[in-house]
Amino acid sequence: MRLLLLNPNTSRDVTELMRVTGAAAAAPGTEIVTMTASRGVPYIATRAEAQIGGALVLEMLAEAPRPDAAIVAAFGDPGLLGARELFDFPVIGLAEAAMLSACLLGGRFGIVTFARALVPWYVECVAAHGLTGRCAAVRALEGRFASLSDVQSEKEDQLLDLARAVVAEDGADALIFAGAPLTGLGARVRDRMPVPVVDQVVAAVKLAEAAVALRPRKATAGAFRRPDPKPTLGLPAALAARIDGTD
Amino acid sequence: MRLLLLNPNTSRDVTELMRVTGAAAAAPGTEIVTMTASRGVPYIATRAEAQIGGALVLEMLAEAPRPDAAIVAAFGDPGLLGARELFDFPVIGLAEAAMLSACLLGGRFGIVTFARALVPWYVECVAAHGLTGRCAAVRALEGRFASLSDVQSEKEDQLLDLARAVVAEDGADALIFAGAPLTGLGARVRDRMPVPVVDQVVAAVKLAEAAVALRPRKATAGAFRRPDPKPTLGLPAALAARIDGTD
Amino acid sequence: MRLLLLNPNTSRDVTELMRVTGAAAAAPGTEIVTMTASRGVPYIATRAEAQIGGALVLEMLAEAPRPDAAIVAAFGDPGLLGARELFDFPVIGLAEAAMLSACLLGGRFGIVTFARALVPWYVECVAAHGLTGRCAAVRALEGRFASLSDVQSEKEDQLLDLARAVVAEDGADALIFAGAPLTGLGARVRDRMPVPVVDQVVAAVKLAEAAVALRPRKATAGAFRRPDPKPTLGLPAALAARIDGTD
Amino acid sequence: MRLLLLNPNTSRDVTELMRVTGAAAAAPGTEIVTMTASRGVPYIATRAEAQIGGALVLEMLAEAPRPDAAIVAAFGDPGLLGARELFDFPVIGLAEAAMLSACLLGGRFGIVTFARALVPWYVECVAAHGLTGRCAAVRALEGRFASLSDVQSEKEDQLLDLARAVVAEDGADALIFAGAPLTGLGARVRDRMPVPVVDQVVAAVKLAEAAVALRPRKATAGAFRRPDPKPTLGLPAALAARIDGTD
Amino acid sequence: MRLLLLNPNTSRDVTELMRVTGAAAAAPGTEIVTMTASRGVPYIATRAEAQIGGALVLEMLAEAPRPDAAIVAAFGDPGLLGARELFDFPVIGLAEAAMLSACLLGGRFGIVTFARALVPWYVECVAAHGLTGRCAAVRALEGRFASLSDVQSEKEDQLLDLARAVVAEDGADALIFAGAPLTGLGARVRDRMPVPVVDQVVAAVKLAEAAVALRPRKATAGAFRRPDPKPTLGLPAALAARIDGTD
Amino acid sequence: MRLLLLNPNTSRDVTELMRVTGAAAAAPGTEIVTMTASRGVPYIATRAEAQIGGALVLEMLAEAPRPDAAIVAAFGDPGLLGARELFDFPVIGLAEAAMLSACLLGGRFGIVTFARALVPWYVECVAAHGLTGRCAAVRALEGRFASLSDVQSEKEDQLLDLARAVVAEDGADALIFAGAPLTGLGARVRDRMPVPVVDQVVAAVKLAEAAVALRPRKATAGAFRRPDPKPTLGLPAALAARIDGTD
């Protein structure tokens, strides 16, 4: 099966980090292909950036060769529900996959990330997935970091301290180090944490495999049926074709 | 005060309908200026379209001369939270204004609209505003309509029957005819409905006036502070400048 | 339009403070008339006092010349739902107006007040309006104050510190200084607060204007239709007439 | 122990019906004394009437000789929380007692009553007690009735049909025939209902006995401590004394 | 009436402590008989132990002579809902009774217990009863204790400090010292606590009396009707007979 | 990896049906071993049976050779949380896996099953997983069936009609045919359903593979740490050893 790992950020090294992590966890026969946004921001951290990045996700999915399933590879899942509505293959969000996997390992999960700006967006993401009751806390480091691609090592000690606080003070039964740049951190520090750690990319790849194994048909009813065709103006060609039904 | 009524749809006649309705309700001294999207779809009806339209809202707000307040004039409020975060004047959503106004007039409001595709998006909009407990129902007509700008007269009888059902069966204490093309319908049929009717544009103009009267400062803390500057790639110039802080 | 600002407390100087603040924010053409309770307590602070004060609200509304809209001018909104049910003009609560306005300016609002006794009642008021999910915290100063009409200046520093804590610790995106005696405080300290501040009386006047602009009819169905006439015993004449239908 | 059964309605025959029912269920040693409102309405059915009736409850409790516990004997519990705050003996609501007892007998209870006007108030009462999740439905007969004191026999067949619908369609596991005039109906029809029936007065007497058996002290902290003394104006003497602390 | 107080733990001295406390609160005519588990653990503290203990509850209830009502005398209520479904007399849980009684005495109750392991199970118990909104906090002592039957005196000071913190910090209006070994503690320390204290066994006995007074029939519809007979394999004889309908 | 598919029911043919379905979906390298209960009932359908079956799950897990992960293969997940607490390998519930997988494919899932008795237990299972907000409905056929192992073909038409109603009337975006005897039905009828169908066993196997891929450590903190050792009386040897820490 061919999984499209779509990074709606412009940071190609983060895409590569996710590809390597995902490939190591994939089942035999799973091929991971990647796309990285050519417009936008290095990492989506706010609602405004998620609005823009989510629209890019739709453009990119329309332009990509049809995969067996796609992963929206930014924690926060920009554009996820629109993509699930518009396309006929499974689309999985990085946050969604990490949270649902964490549900398998305990009662409530804690989300730990590297930048304060991310917190409101993540909190809304948890709520949009109906998982607020399963979330012990969303916490972030204060302060700036030197380099996005190195933030997980630069801030490792602080991130681990914060994660321990989320367990001790907020009662998390499982931990998610959230945000694409933190991919792989969990595997490295797993034995130093007092509860199970979910790697967001491993979760996304395995849940995408699960979704494909279920061989779901495209809904023809309900909230995720393909919208009726509609004329468009000025949209990128592939996306326009998907919306106006000429694809 | 200058209110920017921003229609993220491409339908200019709907913009004009909203302008006329809003101007009639505005206080002396309130000037309403409009913008209509030059890209996108005639009316946003799905999550995918809202994702795209919400990104356009940010572009358009960045390009417009600074107003005293802006109205995102599509029920469903595409891009609202991102806009509230990114800009330093009040931004009000059409759905938000209609729902909060309806809260003043009863316990639970009912939302009635003209196309089934809108329902999941509207339901999510209600939830995103934390108003699910105040919403009796979201219901839509089945079937197609001939013309967007005439849908409110073409379907008037069916819309009124549906609204009466929302009162009788779902227990709505107030009604919202939702979707920009239904602007003005409420005023026309008010006396035939058994509960108060909220016109979405009247509500948005009056609540925008209220927001300006409160003279709110831009948050420097919390979830709606302006995000830290960040480099961008390939975004429209004005929006890029707002995000990278060079505006 | 004529707005009745009804203070169910016996403190006439607080009524005047609210009138002045409201008049400054009113649109041209809005006239504010006031009533102050001749029975009861100087300021309602507990559920028992709100029970008594809410019954007075109904008496006073029945006795007043019919306004275009009325404001129940005590934070906590004593008697509001009964009034909305019994009378055929819009009735707006001070708390309701402040909270709904705060919703326009951010995600979650914080309520800060001057006396601990108020907190349980305010918390129940937030819940009764279905806005618990939008409320970051309700916090009050400990300790006594010298004079009700001067409490906002006497306690200004402590109130501001508490408000800052509600932003920093509870995550409020907007602030309400709650309780009629704090009217006007927000305007004075707005620039020292890190998030927008809502003045409760400004909010109530502007939302009452909005309600009138919507020209709502009296419900003839649902939870806010006028109750069927019913005989009464020993009630004040105007209220009795409103209940037994002889008014 | 001496239980005060306080009817905030003016209907003395309903008070007597409740006294007889309660006395039959009371433990040896429990004496039931009654009070009936001398002002107000024959039966409280709306929020406005509950606001007035709840204030009467406070007056009457202040005037009554101190009981071991009191029952606010109107379903809907007017004035209950204020009374619990103001007085130092247990005060139990008729609705509260019926609902908490029903919780003992199944998962979700259904409330059936005789007049449509009662429904919004009862729904708010369920919510105020935090029991919405335990309530399958609140349903009422449509139409008028001839006499309050005979409504339970006049409408018996319709009430039973409605109760059966609440079980079959709404999934109630226990039933409450709500409203003081329906006292005793449950005992008479118990064997014709498919789920356990709770008599509101039996429940209130037994839970009042339970509250007394727990020998609870008056709170000196939290939301039900006695409010600090406060001057009053124009209130009935006993209530004024309780509020200003001179009792 | 004959109440069966069933201890699903193996600690006979705790059973006796509960019998004595319950008997002192029982009405004239109430006889309390006890059973203590002959298998299992000294005190159930985890979900796994509750799973096992709950199955024992069903076995023991099937083997006991039919009582007028039964009390599952372990806080956490193992097996309660299954028992309520399977048997035709009222079955009351210790936690359920304590929590519902606490609801009569204030807004939100606090649960204080002696061992950290109990907390997750208790939290789930509160949620299973739909009372999360009425629960201020569940808190437990850290550290080990010397003897189960003496834990309430050994740890009295710490338990009282913790209880005071639950009032001051979490806002509890009533307190429950939870866990069968703490039976009787509340009565002893009542006057040293700032809010009413509910003894779990007193509550259970009085609510069992209330349930019997309501003379509830066994449901023949809904979620607590007796399940249809079903063949069993290898279960204890009395329980098998109850399930396969040959009892 | 070795997955233990543990059927807490006594029906061996249903175990085999699940094994075959699971094996077909498993990744290369995944071996599925099974256990079937030797005590209990043919299929767990009530809370009482789930209480007993859940205790058997713990016994059986203690006796089985340690797997890489285990599946509690009864929809309703008897004993799941206790097992997750007690054992140090991932334990996945059939209902949990089906529901979390359905979350990937739409907004709200619908659960359709073959016997009315199952509904209350399933509803509680949904709530216990915190997924009530993601569940459109739980519905069951009325009436009896001839044979457990053939129920899916005997009742196929009725089940499909019911499933279509859950989509059309309750708004389900994905469907789960729930209950071990319905394993494989979804795959057979997938193309006749208007929304994606989740097979519970396929979901459980793929999510168990995901859980193993995450290589979670056993929690040493939080609600799923292994309980402290505790003496036991009369429990099966392997389970006793796991609880008293001598394993």
Automatic annotation (TrEMBL), chains A, B, C, D, E, F:
PANTHER family per record: PROTEIN DCG1
Homology family: Belongs to the HyuE racemase family.
Family matches, as Gene3D superfamilies: 3.40.50.12500
Organism classification: Bacteria, Pseudomonadati, Pseudomonadota, Alphaproteobacteria, Hyphomicrobiales
Record protein name field: Asp/Glu/hydantoin racemase
A GO MF label: amino-acid racemase activity
InterPro entries, A to Z: Asp/Glu/hydantoin_racemase (IPR015942), Hydantoin_racemase-like (IPR052186), Iso_Racemase_Enz_sf (IPR053714)
Domain of life: Bacteria
